[in-house]
Amino acid sequence: MDWKMLLACITGSVEDELLLRNEYLVTENRILRHQIQGRVQLTDAERQSLAEIGKKLGKQALEEIATIVKPETLLAWHRKLVARKFDGSAQRKPVGRPRVDKELEDLVVKMARENRSWGYDRMAGALADLGYEISDQTVGNILKRRGIPTAPDRKKTTTWKDFIRSHMAVLWATDFFSTEVWTLGGLVTFYILFFIKLDTREVHIAGVTAHPGEAWMRQVARNLTMDEWGILKPEQYLLHDRDTKFCAAFKQMLDGAGVKRLPLPPRSPNLNAIAERWVRSVKSEALSQLILFGERSLRHVLSEYVTHYHTERCHQGLGNVIPFPAWQAANDHEGPIGGSERLGGLLKYYERQAA
Questions:
Q1: What CATH superfamily classification does 166-292 receive?
Q2: What pTM value is reported for the model?
């Protein structure tokens, strides 16, 4: 076989493989397009790429393979690209003042969102102190373009994040969680109602019961709002979800005591994140590691864990400090280190002992 025959065989084999690949891609593209409902949104760059390739293929080939747009549409895109090349738009300069740098524009937006009472003049002054020359009118144009309302309108609204941050010192959160306990009657689900203060992470177990009915919830509310030793005081805020266990009698007693309830929107556990995180901690670090026999053992585990949580456990949300440490570390960081434990070694902590 001479070299011409060999070259023809190789070329024919390559062409057959390319045809098979193209046939597979066309079939796959049609299947995928059939599964996509509605119109496919394309960017300008994607339109340009399709138009350039489509022009080379021609209308007849496009009718066989194009599925997301019509061949006429691809060719129309190509004509627009050709026209744009010669209309001089690439050399034109925009009319008017130059656009504000993105970095400065982002800073204006950041200031407006973090300071809801600041007007255009005040933001322009604050930016001038930082070395930026910008007028109050330009500040207003940026905020309008970004869809941010004026200061009077911004002051009327606030986000959950901002509200929680500004009310941390007077804000409690509450929630239920459940665990299974072995009793003489078999495996019973017990419900634990707890409260947590958001600024200090102080946890209060309000009650443990297998039947959280209205009478039980009323008594819990009465205990929480007692003048002498109740944890909830007038003018404090309480975050709670819309669980039906928070019955009308419970809510009425809190309202009567001057506690401002903040019911969370439905299906929004992220808005009660600190309480949810405590549930995860107590379950993963204690309850899920033990088999509980009777309500008394459950109360003992909860008591030990709350003490550990308050006085011995570091909290990442508080900068890795212990909220209410039972001991003070030596200033010179000297002396032997001793380890202690709770719940049979399930909870461990370490302290530097006096030399």
A1: Ribonuclease H-like superfamily/Ribonuclease H (3.30.420.10)
A2: 0.57
